[in-house]
Amino acid sequence: MTETVVSEVLSEVRGQVGFITLNRPRALNALSLGMVRDLMGILLAWQNDARVLAVAIRGSNKEGPFGAFCAGGDIRFLHQAGSQGNPQLEDFFTEEYALNHLIHNYAKPYIAFMDGIVMGGGMGISQGAALRVVTERTKMAMPETAIGLFPDVGGGYFLSRCPGRVGEWLALTGDTIGAGDAIDSQLADGCLPADQQAAVWDALATQTFASGAAIKDYVASKFIAIESMLSGAKGQIDQYFALPTVGEIVSALESADSDWAHATAATLRKRSPLMLNVVLEQIRRARGMGLADDLRMERDMVRHCFYLRPGQSETVEGIRALAVDKDHAPKWNPARIEDVTPEMVAPFFASPWPAHSHPLAALV
Fold first, then answer.
1. Rounded CA gap, 361 and 77, in Å?
2. Is 248 a catalytic residue?
3. Contact 8/38 with Cβ under 8 angstroms?
4. Catalytic site residue from 15, 67, 72, 121
5. Which candidate in 67, 72, 73, 122 is catalytic?
6. In angstroms, rounded to a whole number, what is the distance separating the alpha carbons of residues 96 and 14?
7. For residue 344, how many C-alpha atoms fall within 13 Å in the half-sphere facing its CB?
8. With 60 as the cut, is the pLDDT of residue 4 above it?
9. Domain boundaries, the chain
10. Active site residue 144
11. CA-CA distances (angstroms) from residue 155 to 164, 242, 287?
């Protein structure tokens, strides 16, 4: 008996819309290299297809569509490839970042239904959308510092553009936010009740629209108001995460007279001390960069995360502790925030390629 191989990316054109469903529910639709390539191919084809006025993308869970958007990149693959020198590791990041760039610059409205978990690489394929739709079930985060990585996939670009110092807070802590906070942080455009997603999705296939903009407006017309929980912490976020260094941020949080500050400091103490410092530098550099330059910087950084310190990759160690051995006891090097020096951070921002040979040289 032959086993049917089901595609991890389903696509079809119905009516005037191109529909994409991420179909790897057991892995919470974590992106593999094959999925990145499929998405790129589909979007490039539809960009020049006159039948397609707009694109809609969603995830799936074990029960069917919606419920989980995308939990990020396939970190088990990254661990295996990073440990064994698999050249597909390089391809994965180059092609993933090129896909992120295409979505941000897509010629037609791209509408992301960000239900359930939207993290890491899932943010990369949704933050560039013309319309970013969340639901009351959305759990959004860039949790990379927990695995000794940094918020990539354009994270420097979109987090640095959040109001105040919310970008630094989200990037350093990896904290999870819901729909109201995502909208408040300018990481989503509106909330659609989860139980109305299927009806809206199907309506896009059956109604006639005058333009791509009309399709986008139709979805936005279904948005409901939802409260943000962040408002109470905003002042504290801006106060602490504007400080010049990670050491000063943590010291101030630990000295504060607030449960929120102490919990936040405790979270930061669990993250990779080196990568916290790298990430703070990344977000602050990215504020002054366009998307293409930010993605080139992140491509440099991710190369260094795996190869700058042979046998001592914070990323390989972080993934090992979280997802491979699952001992949740990463051995960070250096172990303490106070032991990180500027000389350890600077090499992450030196490109390993001359400009003309950069893997993302073509992005504009």
1. 26
2. no
3. yes
4. 121
5. 73
6. 26
7. 20
8. no
9. 9-357
10. yes
11. 16, 18, 11
pTM more than 0.90: yes
141-158 residues labelled b (16+ CB within 10 A) or e (exposed): bbbbbbbbbbbbbbbbbb
Q: Distance between CA 287 and CA 277 in Å, rounded? A: 16
Question: Tokens 């407006």 appear where?
Answer: 217
Residue 168 annotated in active site: no
State how far the Cα of 116 lies from the Cα of 286, in Å rounded to an integer.
28
What are the distances in angstroms from CA 32 to CA 121, 176, 211, 288, 307? 10, 23, 33, 31, 21
Query: Class for domain 9-357, per CATH?
Result: alpha beta
CA–CA separation, 96 vs 312, rounded Å? 25
Q: What is the rounded CA–CA span in Å between residue 265 and residue 259? A: 10
The count of residues in the chain is: 364
Identify the CA nearest to 162 among candidates 107, 241, 104: 241
**Is-catalytic flag, 152?**
yes
CB count in 10 Å sphere of residue 354: 8
DSSP one-letter code for 224:
B
pLDDT tens for 335-358 read 999 999 999 999 999 999 999 999
As given in the structure block, the two tokens for residue 154 are: 């354009």
pLDDT at 2: 52
